Amino acid sequence: METKEEINKSFTIRDLPKEERPRERLISVGAVNLGSEELLSIILLTGFKGESVINISRNLLIKFGSLKNILEASLYDIKTIKGIGLAKACQLMACFEIFRRIKRLEKQENYFNSNRDAVVKPEMAAEFLRSKILNFDREHFLVMSFDVRNKLISIDEVSSGTLTASLVHPRETFESAIRNHAAQIIVGHNHPSHDTEPSEDDIKITKRLYDAGKIMGIELIDHIIITETEYSSLKNKGII
């Protein structure tokens, strides 16, 4: 006679009635009504000979104690669970990273909504611009649009990549400002080099946009250069 442990070891998803299998249950009752083991089982997809995917998911939860702890675990730590190889560990890590990015975007959106008024100080403008950039290894050029009362209307990315005076054109820069009926704008971009000093191209871009703004009746208030921790204001440097 098989022991309870032997039965658990030989049990597979196919041994369950179809309506009780995790994927079918998700379809019929919704993801919110599934247990953590079931959700992990759907991500992991399969077990291996002698071990069901549900048992692997259960062992994962037992090992780390909670979904939160699994979320914070490294790829190496997750791979220590028998039945979770590199491919399955990568699947979990990818799902967790998507979750982190969504939470980060929610946090940024909440910050944006609670601080929309009078964001014309360079330090606050830098924070808003920084909150919109996920990859600081690549240059991003953004435009902040304001109404006549200095209330922030929107932040829009104009371009990304290597920025030069020829690539950042007033037409694209002022497009979102015109669409949002902005009275004034602040532009900003990041330096992957972590140096906030303006380059020759940064100065050319700023002067070109300032002159274009005067013609269009949309004032360029400032040009902010940021890194992950620092910023500089071209207005404070006397360039505007």
Description:
The protein is an alpha+beta fold and about 240 residues long. The protein has 2 domains: about 5-105, DNA polymerase, domain 1 (Orthogonal Bundle); about 115-235, Cytidine Deaminase, domain 2, CATH 3.40.140. It is about 45% helix and about 15% strand. It has 10 helices and 5 strands. The protein has helices at about 5-10, 20-30, 35-45, 55-65, 65-70, 75-80, 85-115, 120-130, 170-180, 200-215; strands at about 140-145, 150-160, 185-190, 220-225, 230-235. It has a 5-stranded mixed β-sheet, with helices on both faces. Strand 3, helix 10 and strand 4 form a beta-alpha-beta unit. Helix 3 (about 35-45) packs across helix 4 (about 55-65). It is elongated. The N and C termini lie far apart (about 85 Å). Mean pLDDT is about 85; it is low at about 1-10.
Protein traits:
single chain, alpha+beta, DNA polymerase, domain 1, Cytidine Deaminase, domain 2, 5-stranded mixed sheet, elongated, disordered N terminus
Give the tally of structural domains.
Answer: 2
Poorly predicted residue ranges: 1-8
SS-derived structural category:
alpha+beta
Main sheet attributes: strand count, strand direction, barrel closure: 5 strands, mixed
- Helix count, per DSSP? 10
Q: Any idea what the CATH architecture of the largest domain is?
A: 3-Layer(aba) Sandwich
Strand content: 5-15%
Mind telling me the CATH class of the largest domain?
Answer: Alpha Beta
Radius of gyration: 26 Å
The portion of residues assigned to helices is: 40-55%
Q: Note the run of SSEs as H and E.
A: HHHHHHHHEEHEHEE
Which descriptor suits the 3D outline?
elongated
Fourth-level CATH superfamily of the largest domain: Cytidine Deaminase, domain 2
Average pLDDT reading: 85
Q: How many extended strands?
A: 5
Span from first to last CA?
A: 85 Å
Q: Which strand order do you get reading across the main beta sheet?
A: 2-1-3-4-5
| CATH topology tier name of the largest domain | Cytidine Deaminase, domain 2
